[in-house]
Write a structure and sequence with these properties.
heterodimer; A: about 150 residues; alpha+beta; Thiol Ester Dehydrase, Chain A; about 25% helix; B: about 150 residues; six-stranded antiparallel beta sheet
Chain lengths: ~150, ~150
Amino acid sequence: MTSKTWAFEDFVEGGTIDLGCKDVTAGEIVEFASEFDPQPMHLDEAAGKASILGGLSASGWHTCAIYMRLLCDSFLLDSTSQGAPGIDRIKWRKPVLAGDRLNGRATVLSRRESRSRPSIGLVAFRSELFNQHGETVFELENTVMFLKRGAAA
Amino acid sequence: MTLDEFFEIGVVTPLGSHTFDAEGIKAFARKYDPQPFHTDEEAAKKSVFGGLCASGWQTAATWMKRNLATPGKRWAGTGPAPEFGPSPGITDLKWLKPVYAGETVSFSRTALSHRAMGSRPGWHLLTVYAEGVDSTGDKVIEFNSAVLVKVA
């Protein structure tokens, strides 16, 4: 038996998980973009304002990284996760701007047992991030593998 | 020059490579993806992956880094040069094989198609296939990315 809170059995179709919240600062937007996505609208307030994004805005990949950290801290690190083979789709629906407060929610779309690996179950999620205005800024759908409770060490 | 020629539709463009060293893997993971197999060599040995490996998000973001470092063709058509804007999203991202510490990944992009956007006059939506291959020739990541381009 596992000491983890979340194993495959604990995910219920239609259930939701609060991913918590994250304040996005100008400093971290620029830091991430400087390394991975050095386009003017991610590096400079004036350039961001002049772009169709309307302000200094996070790289979409930074938003993915913010989502991942929220996922880790809200339940993934306290789960029997065996990783995810990929992401079906990501939508960057609205710009994430410096000063935004994001909060997240993951919804279980479906769950099934693995046919090839009896110790594993697969859980499909839709995850969303919302800004302080209640607008959806980010959507992601993927499937994560979890050990079943009895199979986890 | 046509837009097809400018975007190099169907042409595989090499984006260079990146070596994922252990320190870089752990630094990224501590900030964004602190799962034990990305932050700790010993814990990683006992994990499903069997060794320290990069967060899939680090691999994806590094594709973007290489993509921006590799300019496309200069516009030689009539009218103003097309301007690249933000991306509305990606589909079918697959992490096909772990990227272990010390591995070097070679990235590429291939523009697949573009179309005028009914909702945004003057803008086209360009679809790009992104890929990363490790030192043994195995594909480690792939996805389809979309990007808005102002063409008039």
